[in-house]
Structure formats: C-alpha cells, structure tokens
C-alpha cells in the first residue's frame, strides 16, 4: 500500500505506546503487535510496528499518560522501515469517552508545549544497583517512563547525580538501563509502602547521541505489563 498524499486532519508528532490487535471475532490466532506512534490525528495515526498487521479491521490500544484509548481502525498503508514497518491507520470507530481523551490529547499536542514522547504510567517491580557502591541494590517500583527518563519509587533517598542501573525482569530477558538521579522527594509516597519518588534521567551509552525512548524498551515494558496484569497479547 502507498501512503496517501491528501490529509483531512492536521497531524502532530507524538510517541505513544500502541498495541495493535486483530478485531475481535476475526483471525483470533494472529498475534498482537506492540510499537510506537510517530504521528497522530483525529482521523488516525502512523505507527512503527515489528511486522505488518493483516488487512481488515483492527483494534488499537493507545496509552495516553495514565489513560487508555481504544479505537477500531483499518490499515491504510504500510512500508518497510529499519525497525520493522511503518503503518498508517484510519480510525473507523471510537467510543465517546475515549474520543474525549483523544481530542484533549490532540489539543495539547497542537498547543505551545507538545511532547514528542509522552510519559506513560506503568507500575512494575524493579531493582536499582548503585554505581560505585559495591553490594547496594534497592528493590522498588517503576512509576512512569518518558523520552528522557523515568519515575521510580525506592525505599531510601538517593543523592542527586547518583548513577544507578535500573533492572526489570521480564518473561523474555532482563532489561537494564543506566540512569542518574535528577530529583528526589523528601518524604515517602503516602501509599503505605514507605517508598520515595525519584526522577531518573537516562544516560546514553558511550559514543551515542541524546537518549530517546527506545522502541525495544517500550515493547518489552508493555509486554511485561500486559503479562503481569493478565492481558498479555498472544504470542
């Protein structure tokens, strides 16, 4: 399929996690695909996926902050990309409550302070190994993740600038990301766990440019989140 040239709605750059599933009742054995959006609009979106979805109706699940937006859509075009395929989807149906969240998000992206990669909330267990401090590993929780860093909750306050290796055990393989403490709350979160919120910024590997939310990391995090919450996509 070729990408269409005419556009009915304005497009905005935005990196959102997206799960693409074959619409309920059609080809149930086809696996779900997890990727990131590149552009979004009122009428559809452009996404990077590991493989091309089948033609026909699909269900798209988008994570907008701590909200989920669901839409029924169809594949409009597809072309190869270094990460897999770039796809264009046209929306066919969206419930009013989800449409309201989507329209509010688009209004934000069209305003003076859009975000290229939007933070999304995701609660998973993690461990933090302090760099330069032998034997110190803190067990905590991931709170959200964005283009330049993540929010984590840990049982003890860390100093600003402290480098840590954040590890997450997944069903496929462990993930490890090197970060530095950008800020820390002065008191525990009032959730009964006694954990303290920390903002971490990603540290790019030596020789690489500024960090961005890596597509592989996003796919792995969402897959693990869906698996732990009992809504894992088919493999």
Explained architecture:
- This protein has 235 residues and is mainly β.
- 12% of the residues lie in helices and 44% in strands.
- It folds into 2 domains: 12-109, predicted glycosyltransferase like domains (Thrombin, subunit H, Beta Barrel), CATH 2.40.10.220; 120-228, predicted glycosyltransferase like domains (Thrombin, subunit H, Beta Barrel).
- The strands form 2 sheets. Strands 2-3-4-7-6-5 form a 6-stranded antiparallel β-barrel. Strands 8-9-10-13-12-11 form a 6-stranded antiparallel barrel.
- The radius of gyration is 19 Å and the shape is elongated.
From the structure above, extract its key features.
elongated; Thrombin, subunit H; single chain; 6-stranded antiparallel β-barrel; mainly beta; 13 strands; 235 residues
CATH H-level superfamily title of the largest domain: predicted glycosyltransferase like domains
Broad structural category: mainly beta
Global mean pLDDT: 83
Strand order, sheet with most strands: 2-3-4-7-6-5
Uncertain regions spanning at least 5 consecutive residues: none
Distance between the amino and carboxyl termini: 26 Å
Which bin fits the share of residues in helices? 10-25%
Radius of gyration: 19 Å
The tally of structural domains comes to: 2
What's the β-strand tally? 13
Sheet having the most strands: 6 strands, antiparallel, barrel
Please report the first level of CATH classification, the CATH class of the largest domain.
Mainly Beta
How many DSSP H or I helices? 2
